[in-house]
Design brief:
There is one protein chain. The protein has one domain: YaeB-like fold (2-Layer Sandwich). The protein has a four-stranded mixed β-sheet with strand order 1-4-3-2. Helix 1 packs antiparallel against helix 2. It contains four helices and four strands; from the N terminus they run βαααβββα. A hairpin with a 4-residue loop joins strand 3 and strand 4. With 110 residues, it is α+β, with helices and mostly antiparallel strands. The radius of gyration is 14 Å and the shape is globular.
């Protein structure tokens, strides 16, 4: 039987979801699209409750050694770390894949 992990969002990750929604809903004027996209991202993140280490580690340090992994959802990347002692997954950031995500994630707290 596989373990179940709890999913926790950092304050930055929650802000990222709000920013994604706000940009699409209010800048692009596509509220329904924004709602569906955020729901899709959250749904895919929920799948990390089972076998969260199935996705690849980032290539860059210090986050590679810290066990930071990526989950790609549509054009967005969720950066997360698995804590096997606590059976928890911490979502650190959720960013548009077209940005310089490595630089942004360097300042994240996992």
């Amino acid at each position: 039987m596989s373990r179940k992990y709890t999913i926790n969002y950092s304050p930055d990750a929650l802000d990222d979801l709000k920013d994604i929604y706000s940009y699409i809903a209010f800048h692009l004027l596509e509220k329904d699209t924004a709602r569906k996209l955020v729901a899709k991202i959250r749904k895919e993140i929920k799948t990390l409750a089972s076998m969260p280490e199935r996705y690849v580690l980032v290539d860059w340090e210090p986050w590679h050694s810290a066990g930071v992994r990526t989950l790609l959802v549509a054009n967005y990347i969720a950066y997360y770390r698995v804590d096997n002692e606590l059976n928890a997954v911490l979502i650190g950031r959720i960013l548009y894949a077209g940005r310089d995500t490595e630089e942004i994630v360097q300042g994240a707290s996992f």
